[in-house]
Amino acid sequence: MLRSKLLREIYQQPNLARADLTRITGASSASVTQIIRELLEEGVVIEQGREQEGLGRPRVMLSIDPAFRHVVGLRLISKQLSGSVLDLRGNCLCTLHRNLPSFEVSQVLQELQALTEDLLNMAGLQSNQVLGVGLALSGIVDVTKRSCVYSFLLGWKHVPIGELLEAQLGLPVVIENDVNSITIAQKLFGEAALLQYFAVLFIEEGIGAGFYHQDRLLTGQNNAAGEIGHFTVVRSGRSCICGKKGCLQAYASRDALLQQARELGLDVETLQDLHQAALNQDPEALRLLTFAGQLVGLALSFVIDTLDVPLVLVYAGPLSEDLTFQTALLEAVRYHSLPLVDSERKVVFKPAQQDLWLSGAGSLAINAYLNGDITLPPLLSPSFSHDRPPR
């Protein structure tokens, strides 16, 4: 659809002129001019300056208005709900966090609705000023049916959480795997914005990856692409929550590392404690982090060689700053990756940030709008009240 393509191009490359869009899309000048006129009338696109080239008419530069509408990003994992309100460029207006009593679906829906209402109250927005809601959650997600197919961490199986939440909020709801949401955010407003191929690896309670291939999120037939944490890296190894043995997640996830550290006699409660033990040259901590880094690097080499990605962004919490873990991972990637490819392949360690997940969740609604999957909300009275104070 030409409208979506034009919106995407303007979003990804600010300050394009109509002539640029005609050249990029291959559409007729008349078609491009007509749709741009509609987008200007709606307010999503704005004219932002003029650029004179030669003696002809000046080029009118186009851009997305970040404040045109806003989105709500919600993240559900473990026993905490987090949410934020973002503008269309991913800038955060406000953030809230809330403990979740249980994963019982009706309880979760109640808490998600209350959190959304409180967020809009804090931001001073009515629901008709919101494009939609993005919900990022752990597990295998059917984006089309907006269903959590299976989540080990939540204990859910075939839960149509997107449809249920949309019915409660009266707002469009888009759901996605949490790591995929970060991958989309990197494409929309991160350092991978201009790349057609890249990967994101996240190590936390679980281990997952997201991939962009030919400028599209790679999800697979069953929306299960990216479950790198369940690659078998040690034959007949430690038991994993998925029921297999020897999975990467059973060795290099946060909980697995802490469990192994305690088995070795280390007094650690967090990955930061384990990182500090390695800094203090504790031999068991050094050995444990070296082995974990080697296994993650082995798994990453499979991804790099299979998808031929030039960039992998690694979010591993305190481990992203741990030299022992970093060195072991990078050496394993170099050792196991195909050495015949000339182009540079970079693995970049990124510090974990709480708002990273919320940017990812919010990006789901922005991405859906750019794709034409979300239409503009009608300017009607809000679907729910914001009279009560935030909890």
From TrEMBL:
Pfam families: HTH_24 (PF13412), ROK (PF00480)
InterPro entries in UniProt: ATPase_NBD (IPR043129), ROK (IPR000600), ROK_cs (IPR049874), WH-like_DNA-bd_sf (IPR036388), WH_DNA-bd_sf (IPR036390)
PANTHER family in alphabetical order: BIFUNCTIONAL UDP-N-ACETYLGLUCOSAMINE 2-EPIMERASE_N-ACETYLMANNOSAMINE KINASE, ROK (REPRESSOR, ORF, KINASE) FAMILY
Family (UniProt): Belongs to the ROK (NagC/XylR) family.
Annotated protein name in UniProt: ROK family protein
UniProt organism field: Deinococcus roseus
Organism classification: Bacteria, Thermotogati, Deinococcota, Deinococci, Deinococcales
